[in-house]
Amino acid sequence: MIELLNIILFTGLILLGVGYFVKRNEGKILNIAGYILFGVYWVFQVPYFLKIADSVNAVFCMLALPFFLYMAYHDFVSFKNNEDVGCLRFLAGWVFFAGFVYFLIEKTPALEYGLRYEAAYETVLLLNLLGANATQDGIWIHWSDADAGIILACTAIQSIMIFLGAFIAVKAELKRKIYAFLATCPVIWLLNLIRNASLIIIVGTTDIDMEFAHNYIGKTGSLIALIVLAFVVFKILPELYDNIIGLTDLLHRKV
């Protein structure tokens, strides 16, 4: 089952990538198929997130299929009318660039473990710079009464790829894309290390457990940071803002 889901996932992403690069009308057919497969993949992730009591991600997974079916519908309308809707092409590229790199790391054990190990190493380094006597055992961090295992979500690779994928997909001046990258991705990396260290300190000095700290305190902080960074990016790359607003305007599109 896992192998089949991986085939569905990467086939969907590749179709979206090819559809993004194919400028002819036929590229939209590839996008339609890609969206459907990508949405189906997320439906099968719902039981996993429910099992680990991550209701937030479970809800997002439930909403993924109807969202991508809706995008596929608009690409079908564009195909039928032989029109090029820029925000739809942008979305296909965004999902491909961000998703392909992220899932390649997630599904490749050596890459996934290596990234988690590096995040653990850098978090321990930060903790010790702050005066804590933390130690590392592979992907595990030990400090006081806290024993924290670094998962892929603790590496910030998801957030970094969301921004980086958007920068690659949007049509804009390269210099401003580089400025947007420098204003966000290194900041996300640093804030993630601070978040990791803070959660370990919270767990080690209070009665709050890691599950609550990670799923609620950590995610709330990350969401606030991403919203602030998004406004910074919109200032540097207004084209990105236009594309995202264009996706919301599809609700009012005459078909």
Q: Can you characterise this structure?
A:
The chain is built from 10 helices and 3 strands, in the order ααααααβββαααα. By secondary structure, it is mainly alpha-helical. The chain has a 3-stranded antiparallel beta sheet with strand order 1-2-3, with helices on one face. Helix 5 packs across helix 10 (238-249), helix 6 crosses helix 8 (174-205) and helix 8 (174-205) runs antiparallel to helix 9 (210-236). It starts with a helix and ends in a 6-residue tail after the last helix. The mean pLDDT is 91.
Write the layout of secondary structure elements.
Elements: H1 2-21, H2 26-43, H3 46-51, H4 55-81, H5 86-107, H6 109-129, E1 135-137, E2 140-143, E3 146-149, H7 157-169, H8 174-205, H9 210-236, H10 238-249
Antiparallel strand pairs: 1-2, 2-3
Helix pairs in contact: 1-2, 1-5, 2-4, 5-6, 5-7, 5-10, 6-8, 7-8, 8-9, 9-10
Task: Give a summary of the structure in a few sentences.
This protein has 255 residues and is mainly alpha-helical. It contains ten helices and three strands, in the order ααααααβββαααα. A hairpin with a 2-residue loop joins strand 1 and strand 2.
